[in-house]
């Protein structure tokens, strides 16, 4: 294959070495003419520069081969997936058609490429991690588990090439995406080695200082750690040999990411972590002797070292849903240190390292038919058409990392649930209707409430009532995404019914009192009453917290006032007028903001929802009304980034903030006649600050005041806030968004 024009000498050497390695792993799975067909196609696509270097200078063909090696060697994918992976890019660039792939190879190769193209479409629109498109990405994954595995291989390859990414923001975006989506997916599919590497690399690119700190500490303690492991292992090794067992035994240091999590959660120094490593004993034993020999090793280890019964995990008797099997015990080793010991067989170890693909191999399942059980749950959640994709994303992520417990139905059927699952989770796991009508349960013969947390081995019988309906506080009781999705769906249906009922009732009351309803006036009345949505207003009526007749009386009062204002416009004194300026202001000619890295003189507006001022961390959002500037901590920022990432542009302050920016400060303190005088005095004395308006309220001895001021920049604002905080009687000072 003549690919010299695309390679340096070093790259050429790497390519042929990796190509041979790929063939060695795949050779026995390829069909007779696969190699010649593939060679012919590859020559064609390379000649057309399909695999040219990307914007980071990474060679496309080398990256493809690296990804294929990860998919084959580290994950265990075979012929169909690897051919699809190698041909996906030429199909994407329209050099080869899907029909040509189908005719040259088979329908299944074309099917995987088609599904990979669906995911690439999301990435091409820069929306792969957008909440709005998150469910589409999950649909692609849930259709075929091989798509997930190929995407995990691709992300791992790119993370390993992270140093070559020229843009630091691209590297951080990739690391963030990997940490919240691909590492949890790898975990759920049993790819623990890959999961750990993805997490470590994510930490490296998002918090390099912490990553380097932990790595340095691990290197510093390596000698003493190795000596301790050798001391711990020696007597076990001797006993296992005496028992005639064939085995490997080794110490394994925990991942940098997992050590970092311990440092954060436990708030301890590095030296305070006792379980920096685990000992793994891997047995070479036939299938029929696996369990007995694992328990024999357990007996030998616990005879020698005192076990901690609370930290014993048996995934041999009941494996995890992703096929993971192992015995985990924690024992007291020399120098009174707790040590985790993992006991498993060679087969179990391969499944633990390579996950689902290795599970298929040992179960005799074809790669084409292997689907993990949890994907069915993903499909079910997606099919409910959950209205809030952010919630779906959160529920999905939470479910990925959950450990499992196993409980029994009254008929003895085994049900798998997330650790921490309640009676209510169990009810929804059996059937949605059972969950909606659940009032309590009998666990091991005893009556328990719906919030009772289930334990491994519990026998559960659900008690229902025909009048029971889902409640909003149920969302705080359940931990599984299936239960959460079903409860939200039921609540929405209940709310819709209540709203229809309340609307009909209000219209009937209007009609009975012979009043014509003016929709705009009603909307203004609802807004004035403080309801965020019209639905909230009708729910208030449906749940009898607001009397319809009272609502009509208040509506009539609103109508009367509006009519009077329109009919009799009063002359107002100039003294009553308080000068106010719109928070949205057109940019001046002084180029206070630099938009999108280096563009100046562009018209923009400061968003009303967060009122940014000079010095705030800001970003630009391209809206239908032009560019709006928002604070990074704007209450709408998360939604804008997740739903409309492609509209976000960079923005930063330049020059000086001398025009003055409007900020409202909410001050809460002890109700005292002098407090307002003291605060206004502080404001008047501060250079570059002027008071525009104030609004004061006091209830039960508590003073609340909103002080609207004009400031030059965040430095001025921070100084002012500090001085107001020092006023006697002031408890808190906070900046309001709008």
From TrEMBL:
Alphabetical keyword list: Hydrolase
Chain ranges of the TGS domain: 403-464
GO CC terms: plasma membrane
Gene3D superfamilies given in the database record: 3.10.20.30, 3.30.70.260, Beta Polymerase, domain 2, Hypothetical protein af1432
Keyword presence, Transit peptide: no
Molecular functions (GO terms): hydrolase activity
Family matches, as InterPro entries: ACT-like_dom_sf, ACT_dom, Beta-grasp_dom_sf, NT_sf, RelA/SpoT_AH_RIS, RelA_SpoT, TGS, TGS-like
SUPFAM superfamilies, per the entry: ACT-like, HD-domain/PDEase-like, Nucleotidyltransferase, TGS-like
GO biological process, one term: guanosine tetraphosphate metabolic process
Family as reported in the entry's similarity comment: Belongs to the RelA/SpoT family.
UniProt protein name: Bifunctional (P)ppGpp synthetase/guanosine-3',5'-bis(Diphosphate) 3'-pyrophosphohydrolase
Organism for this UniProt entry: Parabacteroides acidifaciens
